[in-house]
Write a structure and sequence with these properties.
The complex is a heterodimer of chains A (216) and B (440). Chain A is of the alpha/beta class and 216 residues long. Chain A is built from twelve helices and six strands. In chain A, strands 2-1-3-4-5-6 form a six-stranded parallel sheet, sandwiched between helices. In chain A, helix 9 (158-168) crosses helix 11. The model of chain A has no long low-confidence stretch (mean pLDDT 81). In chain B, the strands form two sheets. Chain B has a five-stranded mixed sheet. Chain B has a two-stranded parallel ribbon with strand order 1-2. The two termini of chain B are 24 Å apart. The chains are: A alpha/beta (216), B alpha/beta (440). Chain A binds chain B through residues 89-90, 109, 111, 131-132, 134-135, 138-139, 142-143, 165, 168-171, 212-216, and chain B through 1-2, 297-298, 301-302, 304-305, 315, 332, 334, 336-339, 369, 371, 373, 375, 377, 384, 386, 388, 430.
Chain lengths: 216, 440
């Protein structure tokens, strides 16, 4: 595991110097930090040049924010994985960056070990939902829905809902697996499926909901 | 969910009207508590001459413009309006801060009734020969109706927009002035056209009946030329003045907003930063930082929703509880709330029980983080309080920990809900609270 971790190349994008320094210190021992950037343009250039495995991207930045970085890089390098990291809990921003292609969202108050774990998970292609993001998704998909919605994309299955509830309750994937008597891999499958729905659904409520619901 | 809140608005408007009435100075008329109310009190803030029309409009809840126009028309009808105004001035000695009725959506029925009364009065006056003449009164009445059509608003949506404007304008003591100005630019074309036709008709009838028919054409042309000349002379100046006013208003709003932000930051963030600098205890610092963060976030994102009349929401109640626990115990709480609605007694019981469960977790579990998940649906409220700390055997609860028995299990049972405790030594604790909505 450690050997594999050393190979994970991480790029950090944040417009706060202090936070950049902090994240580098926290992740430096687990991963190879290949670069950092403080604004959208230099981030896109740096990421495309370095081709890291995982990019930690701040949601809130001038000139389009994290969503712009994710969108622009994915056009050129669709294999790079993004984990959004933010101080902001505004649903609008969080949903925005996820829909532009980030594979997860965690708040900056996350502990260093949890952050390391989240980066690993994203690197393996899984989705990372913080309790708060799980709450957002549950909220957004709970509104009464018109019948013409595509159940494939616009509704959560019962199991997905259960998994999200447990995440929102603070369970780790392992604990969720134990609780629901399924494997951790199955939990990850459910979360990835929710992520896909979140990114692809054109449920009009999603955007409207996110705009109206400024914060939880 | 939000939509429901907007639907709530009309009721909040009703509330605010009664509040405005309640703020009548009790000493001034000595009648605010049960005694016979005076017919009206003059308005101290909505006045052209002495606030009689403003006060009257507020009393009978129609647009002050209608009242003023009625006075003008009646004044021309043999001077009755002037007499009436003076009489009301004498009667309504007390002055009061009025909340113009149109802000709460002047009542269409009342307005029509008031107009009918005025017309009836005119007819009576005419019959009793208290009258300056048909050629004067009727054209003026016609023009007054036209003016009223342009200026009076009855529909709710518009008054609501105005309400918002008033707020956005920073409430400079008399927030309705700029709001009116901003609103007049949005008078619908239909009303402008309809009202304009009536006013022009009034002027035409006046000219027709007061000037010998042959000269009407010449007078109209002369008037048109004069107006055009005035427009050429004063137009650019007026336009610039209007634009300047707009700029100044925007600037003032901006300054006021900046001052408000500065005041808030000073009272909250700067104070907290000062406290943090003086604090020696890292746990305490963290707690202060977290509480401040929550407060600032709430202020930044929620203030724009405040005042929508929804009352105290579950999310607000939960925030208050978590803030208290965080501050008291220096622990990190991860709170997730799904859905929202106003708090009732049962929901409050869940929130209080949550507070107790969080306090227990903070005091006894030894965990650094406690998760709180609250889900609010139309039918029920569910809450989970979870820590990954030391855990305990629920069947062997020490007798001194009465918090669980009384404040959690007992409280939920009393409110028709359930509480379930899952815990084992070394495996953390999760408390599950649930209550259904419905009649107790």
């Amino acid at each position: 595991m450690t050997a594999a971790d050393d190979a994970i190349r991480v790029f950090v994008v944040d417009d706060h110097q202090l936070f950049l320094a902090g994240v580098r210190a926290e992740l430096g021992s687990s991963f190879e930090i290949v670069g950092q950037a403080e604004d959208v343009d230099s981030a896109v250039a740096g990421i495309v040049r370095e081709k890291p495995d995982v990019v930690l991207v701040d949601v809130h930045m001038p000139a389009g924010g994290g969503a712009a970085v994710v969108e622009r890089v994915l056009l050129a390098e669709p294999d790079i994985r993004f984990l959004a990291l933010s101080m902001s809990d505004a649903a609008e921003d969080v949903i925005g960056v996820i829909r532009s292609g980030a594979r997860g969202y965690v708040t900056k108050t996350i502990s260093p070990t949890e952050l390391v774990d989240a980066v690993r998970r994203v690197n393996e292609g899984d989705a990372v939902f913080s309790p708060r993001l799980a709450g957002f998704v549950l909220d957004a998909f709970t509104d009464p829905q018109p019948a013409e919605l595509d159940p494939e994309l616009d509704r959560l299955s019962g199991r997905e809902r259960e998994v999200l509830r447990l995440i929102a309750r603070g369970y780790t994937y392992r604990e969720i697996a134990a609780e629901l008597h399924i494997s951790v891999k199955t939990v990850e499958t459910h979360v990835s499926s929710v992520l896909r729905k979140l990114q692809l659904s054109n449920r009009y409520q999603l955007t409207r909901w996110a705009t109206e619901r400024r914060i939880v | 969910m939000r939509a429901v809140r907007f639907e709530d608005r009309p009721s909040s408007e009703v509330v605010s009207i009664s509040r405005a009435e309640a703020t009548r100075p009790p000493g001034g008329n000595g009648a605010s508590a049960g005694g016979p109310r005076p017919f009206f009190a003059r308005s101290s803030n909505d006045r052209v001459i002495a606030g009689v029309a403003g006060g009257l409009a507020e009393r009978i809840r129609i647009d002050p413009v209608v009242v003023r126009l009625a006075f003008v028309v009646l004044a021309l009808a043999g001077g009755v309006g002037v007499v009436l105004y003076l009489v009301l001035w004498t009667i309504g000695r007390a002055e009061t801060e009025t909340r113009p009725a149109w802000r709460a959506g002047g009542d269409a029925q009342r307005t029509v009734a008031a107009v009918s009364i005025v017309i009836g009065t005119l007819l009576v006056l005419r019959a009793s020969h208290v009258w300056f003449g048909d050629a004067l009164v009727w054209p003026v009445a016609l023009a007054a109706v036209g003016s009223a059509i342009i200026w009076v608003r009855l529909d709710r949506s518009r008054s609501r927009g105005r309400e918002r404007n008033g707020r956005a304008n920073g409430l400079n003591g008399n927030g309705d002035r700029p709001a009116v100005a901003a609103d007049t630019t949005r008078v619908s074309f239909a009303r402008l056209a309809g009202g304009g036709v009536l006013v022009v008709a009034g002027v035409a009838v006046f000219l027709e009946s007061n000037i010998s028919s042959g000269t009407v054409g010449a007078v109209v042309v002369a008037l048109a030329v004069a107006v055009a000349g005035l427009a050429l002379i004063g137009g650019p100046w007026i336009a610039r003045l209007v634009r300047q006013l707009g700029v100044e208003r925007t600037e003032r709003i901006r300054v006021e907003e900046r001052e408000e932000v500065a005041a808030h930051l000073h009272d909250s963030v700067l104070q907290t930063l000062a406290l943090i600098q003086r604090s020696e205890d890292p746990g305490r610092m963290r707690a202060l930082a977290r509480v401040q963060e929550r407060d600032l976030r709430g202020w930044l994102y929620r203030s724009r929703d405040a005042g929508n009349g929804a009352g105290n929401l579950v999310s607000d109640a939960v925030d208050a509880v978590t803030e208290r626990v965080e501050l008291a115990h220096g622990i990190r709480l991860d709170t997730v709330i799904v859905g929202d609605r106003p708090v009732d007694a049962r929901v409050q019981a869940v929130v209080d029980a949550c507070g107790e469960a969080l306090t227990n977790a903070a005091k006894h579990s030894g965990a650094g983080v406690v998760s709180l998940y609250v889900e609010v649906t139309d039918e029920d409220v569910t809450a989970f309080v979870r820590d990954q700390g030391s855990g305990f055997d629920p069947d062997a609860v020490p007798p001194d920990r009465r918090g669980i028995a009384d404040s959690i299990l007992g409280r939920m049972a009393r409110n028709g809900g359930t509480a379930e405790i899952r815990s084992a030594p070394g495996e953390g604790t999760e408390i599950h609270l649930h209550v259904t909505r419905g009649d107790a």
